[in-house]
Amino acid sequence: MTVIINEWLPDPEGADAEGEFIELFNNGQAVEPLAGWSIKDKSGKQFNLTGKTIEAGEFLVLPYKETKITLNNKDEEVTLLREGQVVDKTVFSGPAVSGQSFSRGGEFFSFTEPTPGAANKVVEAGTGVVVGDEAIAAGTAMPMILTAVAVGLVFGAMAGYGYKLITNHEP
User: Fold this and answer.
1) Can you give the pTM of this predicted structure?
2) Taking CA atoms, which of 13, 33, 60, 95 is between 20 and 30 Å from 101?
3) E runs forming strands in 34-171
4) Which of 111, 163, 149 is nearest to 27 (CA)?
5) What digits encode the pLDDT tens for the residues 126-161?
6) Cα–Cα nearest to 150, from 75, 71, 90
7) What gap in Å lies between CA 34 and CA 17, rounded to an integer?
8) What is the pLDDT of residues 109-123, one digit of tens each?
């Protein structure tokens, strides 16, 4: 996968319409034109990315004011599609952590300080090692997640600070 879902903020401090966003990241080596790409939420509300591009190693922040996608504060998912096919999908169950974004940290997602347009600040699952410059406080209540990445369905298991992903291919 070249373009991935990197971070999204379902329950910002203050008015949701003022702070919600979905962020994509291009981890490839070349610019990626997003003609034929779209994002959608659990309700099926979709936003077409045609006309946008994302540079290699760069972030594309899509605020609510642009997408009009209202993210649920509980039991939500964001899907990235290319020509109607799922490229990336992230899901959490339970309530979102208010004021924190659902952020990718390597192979897992956790609720962390929002960093739109910049590298995520996350804790490596199960280690307490900070990836970035801030950690989630130990004991923070965080919901279980399910994440579908490309073709394989990936299951999330809470690991104290974040989530360790266990694919259906692992023992």
Assistant:
1) 0.74
2) 33
3) 37-41, 46-48, 53-54, 59-63, 74-82, 85-95, 101-105, 108-112, 122-123, 130-131, 145-149, 152-158, 163-167
4) 149
5) 444 444 433 334 444 444 343 443 333 333 333 333
6) 90
7) 24
8) 889 999 999 999 876
> CA of 114: how far to CAs of 58, 70, 72, 91, 103, in Å?
16, 17, 17, 17, 8
Write out the two tokens for 13. 């401090």
Give the Å distances, CA to CA, from 50 to 34, 36, 63, 88, 122. Answer: 5, 6, 16, 17, 31
Phi, psi dihedrals of residue 96, rounded to the nearest 5°:
-70, 155
CA distances for 74 relative to 15, 96, 134, angstroms: 16, 6, 24
Instruction: State how far the Cα of 74 lies from the Cα of 13, in Å rounded to an integer.
Output: 15
Q: Which residues pair with 52 in a beta bridge?
A: none
